[in-house]
Amino acid sequence: MTAAAALCLVGLSAPAAAQISAARIKEHVRVLSSDAFLGRGPAQVGDGKTIHYLARQFAAAGLEPGGTGGSWYQEVPLIRYDRVGPVAISLSVGGAALPLQTGRDITASSRIVGETRLERAPMLFVGYGIDDPAIGWDNYGAADLRGAVAVFLANDPDFEAAAPGEFGGRTMVFAGRFGAKVEAARRRGAAAVLVIHETAPASYPWSQVANSDPAPGFGLVPADPRTPGFGLTGWLHRDAAVDLFRRAGLDFEQLKAAARQKSFRAVPIGDARLSAKFTTTAVPVISRNVVARVRGSARPDETIVYGAHWDANGIGLPDPRGDTIRNGAVDNATGTATLLEIARAFATGPRPQRSVLFIGFTAEEKGLLGAEYYAANPIYPLATTAAMFNLDPHVVIGKARSLDLIGGGRTELEQDLVRVARRHGLRVDEERSPEAGWYFRSDHFAFAKKGVPALAFRAGRDLVNGGMAAGNAMIEDYNNNRYHQPSDEFDPAWDMAGARQEGQVAFELGRELANSRRWPRWNEGVEYKKVRDLSAAARR
Ligand SMILES: [Zn+2]
What we know:
alpha/beta
């Protein structure tokens, strides 16, 4: 932080009234994650109920509508893709069929409306599937991918490397994300992509992949509707992949090790051929971001954004208890509840100098779609949006001595976080699993890509009762047994002290910035800085 910037931060201490309440957060979580909201699936029955609840709560807290046309909403036009009818998938290798069962060995979806058909498409193993000119990493080389199936590993080449390499160690880089790889394969003319599922690099178990196989997919309406969608994308279970490679005379572990080298280029998987045939329908649907605003007293055209995704995973396949509602109590009723509570604190305190915007985003679980839509169609200019704070906590834990920073090393906002946290006796820890690529997995990323300095952090793991061991155990239990499942349900025994700490720090961070003239910056060398610099003239 520059000296000038630091000067802007002095004073503005909180009036005693502006406090974040654990009890109010808890009550919102209880309501939002109740079965009546049906898992808050976008464009499902729970959608309307959820957005009306949020609008009512914002109104009751004294905020003004911040959406389009003076409403509480921003319509987000989506397309829902459903796989309908039977799925025929077959794989031959070495003159014999490799038995494949959808959901058990392989998953398949498509963005081609109508029939997706592959006929004996050759299969190539493309390592980590990365084509990143910035670092000169190209797994495709001269290989002909046209009409072929690109088979790749999850994550990036440093994930299991002994020492950090070109990809910055265990922290996942964007090129390691599924979407980036699909794009790389599409550029090379591939007709299909299959990711080999291994739990650690994927960061979630096969059960989750299998559960989402028959579920509809969602996308934003393409800029050019004539652009054909991408064909088959899916996961291949590790056991099936190992078997496939073995029958093709290849050694999976050996190739995986080779794929960590920069020199690795795509190799044909013997004579393997994949055939597939299924039908996909596309239906336009509308979901909504919920937008509320506290208008700034001095510089209303300058904006601070708080965001939390209101959606969860809606109705799905029954779990062993027969429960089909994926309530999303932690993910992300807690973040949404904290958003409401921070909004209330702003509305009841002295009016900030800059405007403060609160957005409940839809369809985060479908690929950050609500946030991507807002970032592409901002209601308030992004050039004068000073910062975005994202609330997507992913765990309910008790009072902590720490906060977890997601994707550190990117912006000055992180120093602000450290300073405000310290005021509350909280230490800021780097996230524990940077290899999971969390920075790319929630709504702040849509803003970062557009250059808006964005910060994501969570309640920490170092619990006052039980320390790190207790916090880690709680998070592990959540990730293994509840995350995205019907069992992510409200528990009346929850201690929301950690959520309150997180909310209080987020509130004070935004309030400082809303009462300053400061424009937080990206760190030197961070890719989003270039985008931000393009609009520098708009910020004085
Ligand atoms: Zn979430």
